[in-house]
Amino acid sequence: MITNRLKEILLKVKKRVFTGNLGNTLSTFKGTGLDFSEIKDYVIGDDVRAINWKSTAKGLGVKVNLFNEERELNVIIAYLVNGSINFGTKVTKQDAMAEVLGFLSYSALKNSDNLTTIFYDEQLEQLFKPTKKLGVLEDTIGYALNLDPIGKNVDYESFCTFLNSTVKKRSLIFLIGDFYGAVDLSTISHKNEVYALIVRDRFEENPSFKGDISLVDPITLSEDDMSLDKSSLKEYRRLLSEHDQELAKHFLKHKIKFGKIYSDDDKYIKISQILKG
Amino acid sequence: MLNQIVFEFPWVFLIIVPFILCQFFCKAKMGALYFPTVRFLKKATKKSLFLENILKYSIISLLLISLASPVIKDEISIKNDKGYEISLLVDASGSMAQNSKFDIVKEIVGDFLDKRVHDKIGLTVFGDFAYVAVPLTYDKKSIKRLLNRLQAGVAGSRRTALYEALFLSSNLFKNSHAKKKIAILLTDGMNNVENIPLDVAIKTLKKYGIKVYTVGIGGVGDFDPAVLGKIAKETGGKFFQANSKQRLKEIYDTIDKLEKSKIKANKYVKKRYLFAYPLSLALFFIVLLFFRKNRELA
Questions:
Q1: Which of A11, A50, A141, A201 has the smallest C-beta neighbourhood within 10 Å, fewest atoms?
Q2: Residues A126 and A238 in one domain
Q3: Is the domain of B126 the same as that of B249?
Q4: What is the model's pTM?
């Protein structure tokens, strides 16, 4: 089903990515190739064909050339379906995440990388098999736009287990979600290159509710009457930033690159910034 | 002090049951919206929610307490009992002071009061003029206290306003609903105040249906047996003569053995209503809650 929003996202993605150079510097894997990276000391096991005789002749030990690996990358984009993504002031986070998914997918496909798209909540929701065909874009973005996240909760542990069991090759893994749950990505981070794209809405980080309000938790679906005042909102912001700091600590510890994208941001620019570090 | 506080309408406390039920089952419907981080919000509002709930529950309980009307009761309620409404008319003219007649009368009337626990009793004293010392009441203590303070001559010592006393005391029964009303007239003299004629006094007595027992004390010639007899006869009472303490006591005992009429018992309970205190506290809390809510909106 091609909706207007899907068309809009596809057009936007193609235009921006086609003119930009996103994805050119995606890989940091070292290996054989033509793209020279650096010279390093020879270690037993290194390919003798890569010995740089000029540097070695200078007398500081045997040196080898190191190249950026030129191989087709295994790109996995995981769209984390949590109940909380059904929220947004200008566009919903679900929508914004679909856009992010579009940018990443298109760049990967343009680079003719192998693209796998995963939708995950408590278990595997939907898996789009590895492909290099642009046609998959419509399916994945369409799926992202039309899914119903209410009542779903991402189980990060089972997600990591699933990834480890299905993905054998070293991969570039993009996680798109709002990361409100108990995030633990330690088991996938050391083997793969993981990017966490935290999609948030500005209002949820800085709500300006006043007085009595009835709010429904999109995961547990329990309704709660709250009366909010300045001090409790302040406390809320403190709790949230505490959670985010915890999250950042976890990402830094496991060398996961991460960045926040607000639902009303220019996603292309934000993604480029995050990928370039 | 505290254990004397009783609630007039304790069943009002049952209202707390629907209130608590409503807390869970009939919440005010508000437009609810999905919010991703309810978890954090809940944690953040925990303290203020707790405070608000305390306020809310103390308001409702204080309101219920005041609605249940706490009172301090000073006297026991009098049961709906068979009894009289009795007006005692005591002659306090100067002549009563002789031979300590008045003291004897006081003693006997006091005994009589003790016997009539469940009766409403009034006391009228007459001398130069007549006055109602105590209107009809269950409060025997006050009557006794007043009786003890009475002395012969308190209402003037020269004359005897007998008819006026009858007239006045019959007015006591104006609002009475008792079936049988009784007046006991005790005198040792003759009427010599001419402001109320005898037939007017008797007419008033009859009008209210008051039975008058007349007691003449002293020797022959001290009182007018014809008049006293007439009053008793006309109103359906009886006329007694007494010339000794013993006889007087017998007379009162006889009267005491009269048939009993059922009177509507009024609860003569001194109550101090205390509802104002919890009510004002509840109002104070409501204002507090109101300001809290207003602050949230600010």
A1: A11
A2: yes
A3: yes
A4: 0.58
